[in-house]
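Input structure tokens:
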């Protein structure tokens, strides 16, 4: 693992994705094939799939998502909550969070101002054993294997404590993955999710809509590019297709599995004091990726001891494993940039 001062988010060359002449993602995911329903039914008839699994896979092929549940032990949920409280106190340098702006080091966080709706923590599984257990949950990886048609690997986690009025987005655009067509997401509810906590919204069948290209073959947005042009393109595509949103509510332990092209967002938060904790996990095929990278902003001492913000980047090939499930470690784990304060250096050496 190495750290350098370089900007994230497509400042380096980004591989082109495969699109047709209308901007549709060319996918070789088996559930995107025209005969996906027949393939699922054959697997059910042969005993490779249970009937309930087959119905969910058919829904995924048709609408781009389905809901399932996992056994979420109360002790695991409570430990994750305790870990969040601890990390807001400890403010580890090598953990990224965001509030309004780009990902920053938690060492620069302000709990009173920023621990409220819209904040997120990235790759929390490196600092919470309980969340790591969820990251490597056999039930989630089992579904990912069925959806991807091969051995899956988890790419990372996003933790949220509150809801937010998230504009419509698509994972194929916003998640760094080697092949956006072979990317699936599991959104796990840790709390009850109701209308007043800003529930998630999906737009069924939107996975087949065309993508906006910021340049030929590139659907991901760069740091300095205006997302509004791509957003207008998406809104027009939704209007022309006549698709409508569907609001989802959850009990703790319910999971939303999403296609990478599915358009999704969230409703406004009616009660900003009520939590809506969730964990989002992204999966791809293990044979497609060898390393993961991540970046964040960190305030450090610059020239003449003046404080300044810099981007830092790190990569890892380290895999975490449990019960046959694999997921990448946090690329930022152990990253302590030059220019830290004395307290930050000491905290890093103590492993806090």
């Amino acid at each position: 693992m190495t750290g350098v001062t370089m900007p994230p988010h497509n400042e380096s060359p980004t591989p082109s994705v495969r699109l047709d002449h209308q901007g549709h993602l060319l996918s070789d995911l088996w559930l995107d094939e025209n005969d996906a329903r027949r393939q699922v039914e054959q697997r059910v008839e042969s005993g490779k799939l249970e009937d309930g699994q087959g119905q969910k896979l058919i829904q995924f092929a048709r609408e781009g998502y389905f809901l399932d549940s996992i056994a979420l032990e109360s002790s695991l949920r409570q430990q994750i909550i305790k870990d969040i409280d601890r990390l807001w106190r400890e403010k580890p340098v090598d953990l990224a969070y965001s509030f309004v702006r780009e990902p920053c080091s938690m060492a620069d966080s302000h709990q009173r101002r920023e621990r409220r709706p819209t904040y997120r923590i990235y790759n929390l599984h490196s600092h919470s054993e309980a969340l790591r257990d969820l990251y490597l949950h056999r039930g989630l990886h089992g579904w990912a294997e069925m959806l991807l048609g091969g051995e899956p690997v988890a790419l990372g986690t996003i933790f949220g404590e509150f809801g937010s009025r998230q504009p419509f987005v698509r994972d194929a655009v916003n998640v760094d993955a080697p092949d956006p067509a072979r990317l699936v997401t599991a959104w796990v509810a840790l709390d009850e999710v109701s209308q007043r906590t800003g529930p998630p919204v999906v737009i069924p069948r939107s996975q087949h809509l065309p993508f906006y290209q910021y340049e030929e073959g590139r659907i991901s947005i760069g740091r300095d590019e205006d997302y509004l042009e791509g957003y207008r393109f998406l809104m027009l595509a939704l209007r022309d297709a006549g698709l409508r949103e569907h609001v989802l509510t959850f009990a703790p332990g319910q999971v939303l599995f999403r296609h990478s092209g599915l358009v999704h967002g969230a409703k406004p938060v009616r009660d900003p004091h009520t939590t809506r904790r969730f964990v989002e996990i992204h999966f791809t095929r293990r044979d497609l990726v060898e390393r993961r990278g991540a970046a964040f902003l960190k305030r450090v001492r610059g020239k003449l001891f003046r404080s300044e913000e810099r981007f830092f980047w790190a990569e890892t090939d380290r895999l975490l494993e449990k019960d046959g499930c694999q997921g990448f470690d946090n690329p930022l784990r152990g990253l302590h940039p030059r220019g830290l304060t004395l307290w930050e250096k000491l905290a890093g050496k103590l492993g806090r």
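The first helix runs from residue 36 to 45. Confidence is low (pLDDT under 50) at residues 1-14.
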